[in-house]
Structures are given as structure tokens and as C-alpha cells.
Specification:
By secondary structure, the chain is mainly α. The protein has a single domain, classed as Helix Hairpins (Orthogonal Bundle). It is 82% helix and 0% strand. The protein starts with a helix and ends with a helix.
Length: 111
């Protein structure tokens, strides 16, 4: 059973590392803050979740801490990305290649 847990931990480390690398590449390569938020907010969170799963499988007594951190990350990750995107929109950062902006109409009607 110990070998099985080690294999799962190794697979989770590999998958988590791949997700994290894709998030970093997306952050570097994507053109504006809104698409970069998608790469870091989604892919990066799943990379860290897989790394926490690997840590929980590697250390059986760490399940409680691992699950708590995963829950905290899954709850706060999207809220943080939304707050950063909303702040970027409010200060007027441009979108690269946007065909329309639905938030312009709601922002002008509230002013």
C-alpha cells in the first residue's frame, strides 16, 4: 500500500508541475492582464492543488492540513482573480483585440 501512495504522490507532483508550467507560460505569453488572469487564476490554482494532493499522499498525517489549504485556495482563487480583473477594468487597462466591451455600457449607466 505504501508503494501505491508513493506512485499517486509522484503522479500528482508531475501533473501539478505541468499545470504550474502551463500557468507560467500563459502568464508570460498572453497579451493583456485579463487573459493572463485566466492562465494564473485557473491553471495555477489547479497546479498548486495537485501539489497539495501529492503532499497529502506523501505524508498521511497531512490530510487535514492539505484539505484545508485546498479548500482555502479554491475559495479565494476565483475571488482574487475577479477583484484584480475588476480593478484592471476600473482603471481602464485596454483589452488586446477585443471586439466589444459589455462593461462599458454598465459603467456609464451607473455614473
Amino acid at each position: 500500500m505504501n508503494l501505491f501512495l508513493q506512485v499517486i504522490a509522484i503522479l500528482a507532483v508531475v501533473v501539478g508541475t505541468l499545470f504550474s508550467v502551463v500557468g507560467v507560460v500563459g502568464f508570460i505569453r498572453l497579451p493583456d492582464v485579463y487573459t493572463r488572469l485566466h492562465a494564473t487564476g485557473k491553471v495555477g490554482v489547479f497546479g498548486v492543488v495537485f501539489l497539495l494532493v501529492a503532499a497529502a499522499f506523501g505524508e498521511p498525517l497531512g490530510w487535514g492540513r492539505g484539505l484545508f489549504l485546498i479548500l482555502l485556495l479554491v475559495i479565494t482563487g476565483p475571488a482574487t482573480a475577479h477583484a484584480i480583473g475588476s480593478a484592471a477594468n476600473r482603471i481602464g487597462l485596454p483589452r488586446k483585440g477585443a471586439e466589444r466591451d459589455d462593461l462599458v455600457y454598465t459603467s456609464k449607466s451607473k455614473s
